[in-house]
Each structure stands twice: as C-alpha cells, then as structure tokens.
Write a structure and sequence with these properties.
The complex is a heterodimer of chains A (299) and B (365).
Chain A lengths: L1 H10 L8 H27 L3 E2 L4 E2 L6 H8 L1 H34 L3 H15 L3 H12 L4 H8 L11 H25 L3 H9 L4 H12 L1 H16 L3 H6 L7 H11 L3 H26 L11
Antiparallel strand pairs in A: 1-2
Helix pairs in contact in A: 2-14, 3-14, 4-5, 4-8, 4-11, 5-8, 8-11, 9-10, 11-14, 13-14
Chain B lengths: L6 H19 L15 E5 L4 H18 L2 E5 L3 H13 L8 E5 H10 L29 E12 L24 E4 L6 H7 L12 H11 L4 E3 L1 H9 L5 E5 H9 L5 E3 L5 E9 L6 H14 L2 H11 L30 E2 L3 H19 L2
Parallel strand pairs in B: 1-2, 1-3, 5-6, 5-7, 9-10
Antiparallel strand pairs in B: 3-9, 4-7, 4-8, 4-9
Helix pairs in contact in B: 1-9, 2-10, 4-11, 5-6, 6-11, 7-8
Classes of the chains: A mainly alpha (299), B alpha/beta (365).
Chain lengths: 299, 365
C-alpha cells in the first residue's frame, strides 16, 4: 500500500489535488470533444453540395442541402415516421417493462427472479441484426407464427415488412434496456410504502398507480429517454423488418452517404437528426425537470 | 493536363507491359521473378455468396497459384467501400483494398473523382470485346468484365399460363405484396419507362411515364431489398416475382427454388460490372493489383469466373454455362440485345441519384 501511495505521489503530487476532478473527467471530455469535432466537420460538409461532374463537394458554401431536406416530402414522411415509431416504441416498451421489472424486483421466489433475469439477458446478448433475422424467420409467411395460425384455420398473413413489424422489432429490442433502467428505480421504493398504502385501504392496483408509478418516475423517464433516442436513431429494424418502404432517418442518412455518395446531404440529415434528438430530450427534461432523473435539479 | 514522357515512365510502362504479357502467357510463379516485390496478400472487394465463390474459383485462386500472393476478399458492400476509398485517396492514405469489384456506374463516379489507377497497359485488354471499354471515360480507369441483365424472375407455379409477357402483368391484384424490387429501383427504371407508355429516348429529360408506372407498382405494395433478400424471399415463399440480376435467380434455382426468368416485351436493363485499382497504393502493390485485373481478363479466368455467375464476359470465344445458351439473361449475339435496354454510363452517373430519390419518394409514401 505504501508503495502504491509513493507511486501515486510521483504520478499525481499533492499540489495537483484541486485538479483531480478534472483529471477524472478528462477521458469523458476527450470522447465528447471528438464527437463535437466530428459534428463540426459534418456541419461543414453539410454546407457543400455534390458536384456530379467530379463527384467532389462544391467549393461554395450553401444551405441547399437543408433546403432539399425541408422541401422534399419524402424526408418529411421519414422524419414523421421516425418520431412516431420512437413514441410508440417508448409507450409499448414501458408498458411491458414496468410490470416485468416490478415482478422481478418484488418476487419472493429467487427461482422466478432468476428465470426473469435469464429471459431478459439471453436476448440482450444477441445482436440487433441477429434478433431482427430471428423475427424474419418467426413472422415470415411460412414462419412459426403463421404456422400456428394455420392450425386454427387462418390463411397465412403478411406479418412482416410494414410499420407495425418495425415497432414490434424495436419494442422487442428495447425491452431489456428499459427493464434494466427501471429495476434500480423500483428497488429503491421501500416495500413499506406499499404496505402502508394497503393498510390505509388501497388495493394492489391503487397502490401500484398512486405509489409505485409516481415513485418510479425517475426510472420511467430515464428508460423512456434511452428507448426513445435509440429508437429514433435506429437503422437495422426499419431496414430488415420494413421491407424497404418503412425507412427511418438513419436509413435515409445511410442512403445519402453510401448509395448516392452525397455526403453533404447525408451530413445535413444527420445534423437534423441530432437536433431532433436533442429537442426530444430537452422537451422531456423541461416537462419533468432534471431532478426527476436524479440529477439534483429542481423537482 | 499533359504529362511529358520521362525515362522512368517509359521504363515503368515497359516493365508493366512485359510483366503483364508474361503473366498472360506463362502461368507459373517463376515468371514473376523479376517483378516488383510481392506483398503477402492483396485485398479484393467482392459481393458475397455465389458472387465471391465464382471470383475465388475463377480468378483469386489462380492468381495465388501463379504468383504465390494470397487474395483476401473484403465483402464490404460496394456502396460502403466507395466513401472509404474516396476519403483514403483525398487524405493521402493507403486505401483499404487493392482491387474493387464494382458496378460500372459506381466505378465511373470514382473515375470522375480521379481515384482510379490507369489500367490501359494491361496486356489482356488486347483480347477483349468493346464491352470491356468504359463509355464516356478516357482510357481505362476501370475495366468492364462482364454484362448482366435485370431479368423478371418468377415462380412458374404463380404463372400457370406461362411466363409473364409484360411488366404490367405484375399489376394483377393477386400479386399484391408478392413482387420484389431493388430498394432504390435500380434495374427497374428503364423498363418502367416503357411499361408506363414512355420512350427510352426521353431518358433522362422526361421520366414521368416511368414514375407513373412505379406509382402503379407501389399500389401493389412490393417488397424492396438487396441481392441476398431476393434469394431469401423466393426461398421463404414471400414473393412470386422480382426484378433482379439473373445471377441471383440462378443462385436461388441452384439452391432448389423452383424459379424461371424472362425478358418481358418492354425489355430489361443490361449493364456491366468492372474491376478497378484505387490510387495511393504502394507502387509494388498497385502493380500486383493490376496483374490481378489482367488475369481476370484472361480467357481461362473469364470462363471459370463467369460460369459461376452465369454471365457473358468480355473475351470472345467463351462457352456459355450449361443451360444458358440462348437464354435471354446471357446475351452474346447482336440480336440477343434487341430486347435489352442499355443507357450510357454518363447519363446514369449524372442522374442516378435523382432516380433513386424519386423512386424512394414514391415507395416511402
């Protein structure tokens, strides 16, 4: 231990103590700095149109790419679809995650808790693309779902390649994230508060609605933010389960960068996605307050 | 810009041409004894599945056998490698691959951007047909290696009255949700222009008939995907018909899917793929990358490679793969091209982005 202290004195002498906090923050600041640097480069790129005679960005600075995004009805539809998809994903994910987390936290049976944890983590270890591929197999025209419907005399129906399929895939993908964020919030609610509510005449449903949900609000908001931003920026589910006609903004960005080689337009779309995501987070925080997220702000 | 010949450039051209001639005529590893230093491997970007298997068998394995240089295949999509190559050349970095197997339209963009090595001195170019020459570009910044057709592939079971005669046959309500197109509409724009009542001469100035037909097709709720999707969708019984490259249909058929293909009366798009070498490679690696391209243009390599793909090459005298002689997807004679639609690369390069965007606009609606 002495040797460790001596080494520490050499590497980080006592006179540097006031800067310890900054030193600990430095790796995170560097990462964010790199991200901001990239954003500046993208902003610069977004102000140049593609010269199709040389396939190089034009010399002049222009807002033409932003005008294209604003005036093109396709991008309007794609942005609307992305926002709607994210909102629906948040709603359905939280709807499923809350009871799941609650049972996982409150159950007295360790076997049930283990089963729930394993069920939660098993798909968590599988990548998004593999999971989407699994859904393609399960929900396909000749997949398990249609085979089951066939047993009760229902003709095969198209379950894939539409907007509901994309939202379903997103909910399935996001559920573990939401449960993992909700579980600590629910654990922090003392059982005694529910007992107290019951002793005052509240049934389980009333207790859940008036005690558990309000007290779990930081977890719900945090999970909603994570699920919402991840769904808003998702690429794989719309690409694989949407059948090519249910693109989200990330798919449109991909198209510009990699299909038409128009990096300026892709950068403009990417920056608009960043703005959209930031506005989404800002609205949530302004409504519920930073304190709701446990950040010590105004409650 | 005109560059005067220097003693060094003349010597280099002489060495390259001599080396290429040797490679073409004497397939032993000893012929390269006096050539530039060999890298341990070269990296060739390729499409996966049947595509890379055919390239490996026809070109890469032969190249390794002849030179001792291993060939690694990078299966990054052609559209995804493009910005990486452009960025590498722009930043003066060594590009991530040695040879790019690319669509001619994409490769033309790279050539226009000036990131491709000149391939004019490849010895085997002397034995190629006109198809090998890129249109609208000076010299050979890229070399076309074969042609292909975006056929109408279909499940015969779904067409009991015989093959579809027209692209309009796909508008039958029974095919709602059962037709697949590429997600950017590639291969479909030109026949759609005809099926929509327009003329090919109006491309690119008036494509409204094309978009009218695409709108009619949109009402059919088609699936939109990439090459591997078509094979999967046919195999899983998701679709009855698709506008796809004949190689994909052939692959599905080889995998046991009952499938046929046809060229409807409006025609099908004919296009080419190519090989090119990016700039900024170390001199010796660029040399061997060019030799790889040269080998791909030899009759022996073309025969094996294109047997695997079921496509017509750019070297005369190739034997069509079994069952593909006189097939509409394997055009070799002038009359075979009568129902195939060829639009110049220059027009495609200039307008492709707009066509993709318009197709997306309709399909995303």
């Amino acid at each position: 231990m002495d040797a460790l202290n001596r080494t520490l004195d050499i590497v980080w002498p006592a006179r540097m103590m006031p800067y310890t906090g900054w030193a600990l923050l430095m790796p995170a600041l560097l990462l964010v700095g790199l991200l901001v640097l990239g954003l500046f480069q993208m902003a610069d790129s977004s102000l140049h149109t593609l010269d199709r005679s040389t396939f190089l960005p034009s010399e002049n600075y222009t807002l033409e790419n932003y005008r294209t995004v604003v005036e093109n009805a396709t991008y309007g539809k794609i942005i609307w679809r992305s926002v709607l998809g994210a909102v629906l994903t948040v709603f359905f994910t939280l709807l499923l995650a809350l009871p799941y987390s609650y049972i996982m936290v409150r159950t007295s049976s360790s076997a049930v808790r283990k089963v729930l944890l394993v069920t939660l983590f098993l798909p968590f270890f599988i990548g998004q693309v593999v999971r989407a591929y699994g859904l393609l197999i399960i929900l396909g025209t000749t997949g398990v779902a249609n085979n089951a419907l066939g047993l009760v005399g229902v003709e095969p129906i198209r379950l894939l390649f539409n907007f509901p399929a994309v939202v379903f895939g997103l909910v399935q993908y996001m559920l573990p994230f939401a449960v993992l964020m909700l579980a600590p919030a629910l654990t922090a609610i003392p059982r005694e508060t529910e007992t107290a509510a019951a002793s005052l005449g509240a049934n389980w449903l009333q207790s859940f609605r008036h005690v558990v949900i309000p007290m779990a609000k930081p977890g719900l908001i945090g999970a909603g933010l994570v699920v919402g931003t991840l769904a808003l920026t998702d690429f794989a589910m719309p690409a694989m389960l949407g059948g090519g006609s249910q693109d989200f903004i990330a798919n449109a960005i991909y198209d510009q960068f990699f299909r038409t080689a128009d990096q300026g337009l892709g950068a403009a779309l990417a920056l608009m996605l960043v703005v959209l995501g930031s506005v989404f987070v800002a609205i949530v925080i302004s409504i519920f307050g930073a304190g709701t997220l446990g950040m010590g702000g105004k409650k | 810009m005109h560059k005067p010949f220097t003693r060094r450039s003349v010597l280099r051209a002489g060495v390259a041409t001599g080396g290429a001639a040797l490679l073409a005529s004497m397939p032993t590893r000893h012929v390269f004894a006096q050539e530039p230093e060999k890298p341990s491997e070269i990296i060739v970007r390729a499409w996966g599945g049947e595509w890379v298997e055919a390239l490996k068998k026809g070109v890469s394995d032969r190249f390794t056998e002849m030179t001792g240089i291993n060939v690694r295949h990078d299966l990054t999509e052609d559209n995804e490698i493009q910005p990486k190559l452009w960025a590498a050349v722009a930043q003066g970095r060594v590009p991530p691959i040695h040879v790019n197997w690319d669509t001619t339209t994409n490769a033309t963009k790279s050539a226009l951007r000036g990131v491709t090595e000149d391939l004019s001195d490849l010895a085997n170019l002397a034995n190629t047909t006109e198809l090998a020459k890129p249109v609208g570009l000076e010299g050979y910044p890229i070399v076309n290696t074969y042609g292909y057709v975006y056929v109408l592939a279909y499940r015969p079971e779904a067409f009991p009255d015989g093959p579809p005669k027209s692209w309009r046959d796909l508008l039958d309500p029974k095919f709602k949700g059962r037709v697949a197109l590429y997600n950017d509409g590639i291969g479909f724009h030109f026949p759609a222009q005809v099926a929509g009542g327009g003329s090919l001469d109006d491309i690119p100035d008036n494509m409204e008939p094309c978009w009218d037909f695409v709108r009619e097709m949109k009402a059919q709720n088609p699936l939109l995907g990439e090459d591997p999707d078509f094979t999967t969708w046919f195999q899983n019984g998701e679709i009855d018909a698709a506008c796809t490259i004949s190689t994909n249909a052939l692959a599905a058929k080889k995998n046991g899917v009952e499938l046929a293909w046809t060229v409807p009366e409006e025609g099908c798009k004919f296009d080419t793929d190519c090989l090119w070498v990016p700039k900024n490679l170390p001199e010796n690696e660029a040399y061997w990358a060019k030799q790889y391209v040269n080998l791909a243009l030899s009759q022996e390599s073309q025969q094996v490679w294109l047997d695997g793909l079921g496509l017509p090459g750019v070297v005369p005298g190739l034997t069509p793969p079994e069952g593909l002689e006189n097939d509409p997807s394997y055009p070799t004679k002038p009359e075979d091209f009568k129902h195939l639609i060829r639009i110049s690369s220059a027009v495609q390069v200039q307008n492709e982005s707009d066509w993709f965007a318009k197709f997306k606009e309709i399909m995303q609606g």
